[in-house]
Amino acid sequence: MCEIVYKISPRDAWQQAVAAGVYEGAPVDHQDGFIHFSTAQQVAETASKHFAGQDDLVLVAVESSLLGDALRWEPSRGGDLFPHLYGTLPIDAACSVSPLPLGPNGEHMFPEGVL
For the stretch 23-43, what's the b/e string if a residue is b when 16 or more beta carbons lie within 10 angstroms of its beta carbon? Predict the structure, then answer.
């Protein structure tokens, strides 16, 4: 089964990861011990809850099967299972990287086909 999981990142942090060849996570990821991801059904709520009002973000789409056993599905917000990566994210696992701008209403505008 082909399943895409999503990581929201500040553009500059992602550009640094591309230069390094690996994404090591945001400060919250380091604090929690894993890299937070969301499914297509979860990502809009993740954006509004954790990235409200933040501009210059990117949405990184990753094929979950490329992450192997390091990706675990664990209960989080509301008891939903969220994808958590226990390790670093190889840049070449990213299927696509899209801008995640703020719309006129202050909410993030997701690329077509994500939500």
Answer: bebbeebeeeebbbbbbeebb
